[in-house]
């Protein structure tokens, strides 16, 4: 059934006409690039939003940490004085 079709198979595999494998691959790559661009755009947006959230939350977290450390030191001061 496939005998004698070597030239047709070769032309299909290495040709650039619209009905050949390279043309189909080119169409697939174009579609893949479009999907990748959509994903990249959403990724970039998510990164910007995440960085925006960090700029507002990090100072509050640092302040909370410092207050906790200060209150802990005040609470332990009497106990530590017993050993001094």
Structure, explained:
By secondary structure, the chain is mostly helical. It has two helices and no strands. The model has no long low-confidence stretch (mean pLDDT 90). The relative contact order is 0.05. The protein starts with 5 loop residues before the first helix and ends with a helix.
Secondary structure blueprint with pairings:
Layout: H1 6-14, H2 21-82
Order of helices and strands: HH
Number of helices: 2
Radius of gyration: 33 Å
> How many E strands?
0
Helix content: over 70%
pLDDT under 50 segments (min length 5)?
A: none
Oligomeric state of the chains in view: single chain
Strand content: under 5%
Distance between the termini: 98 Å
The largest pleated sheet is described as: none
Mean pLDDT: 90
Class based on secondary structure composition and strand pairing:
mainly alpha
What is the overall silhouette?
Answer: rod-shaped
Task: Give a quick rundown of the structure.
With 84 residues, the chain is mostly helical. The protein is built from two helices and no strands. The N and C termini lie far apart (98 Å).
Task: Throw out a few tags for this protein.
0% strand, mainly alpha, single chain
